[in-house]
Write a structure and sequence with these properties.
This is Flagellar protein. It comes from Desulfotomaculum copahuensis. Belongs to the FliO/MopB family. Pfam families: FliO. This protein has about 130 residues and is an alpha+beta fold. It is built from three helices and four strands, in the order H-H-E-E-E-E-H. A four-stranded antiparallel β-sheet has the order 1-2-3-4, with no helix packed on it.
């Protein structure tokens, strides 16, 4: 093989490796999905509530309608369809959700004390 032919083969192999790497990145990281906003979006996830490691409830807006979906292990079921967005549920007083614990309560008390201290300092400085 001549030097020119060997250079062409090496160049071809480099380009082939780059194309394969680019194809892998597109498939692996879904680069095409990152630019979905360019195609005009008609769907969005309004809220998602995990029920376990592989199960969740998802509220999805499609156009002017809302769908409550349940999904678990690859299966998706439409639980309910809404004409308008459902009302938010009231949060019970003193409810800290999943982060409620004695340590979280102490931290919340400590942060409240800091806020009060800052408010007093600002009041004195005026």
């Amino acid at each position: 093989m001549s030097g020119g032919m060997a250079g062409s083969v090496i160049q071809l192999l480099v380009y082939l490796i780059l194309i394969c790497l680019l194809a892998y990145l597109v498939v692996r990281y879904g680069l095409g999905r990152r630019f979905a906003f360019l195609s005009g979006r008609r769907m969005r996830v309004v809220e998602q509530l995990p029920l376990g490691p592989k199960a969740a409830l998802t509220l999805v807006q499609v156009g002017h309608r809302y769908y409550l979906l349940a999904h678990q292990d690859g299966a998706v079921v439409v639980v309910r369809e809404f004409e308008q967005l459902p009302e938010e549920l009231p949060v019970p007083a003193g409810y800290a959700g999943q982060w409620s614990s004695p340590a979280a309560d102490r931290l919340a008390d400590w942060l409240e004390q800091i806020k009060e201290w800052i408010a007093k300092r600002r009041g004195r400085g005026k």
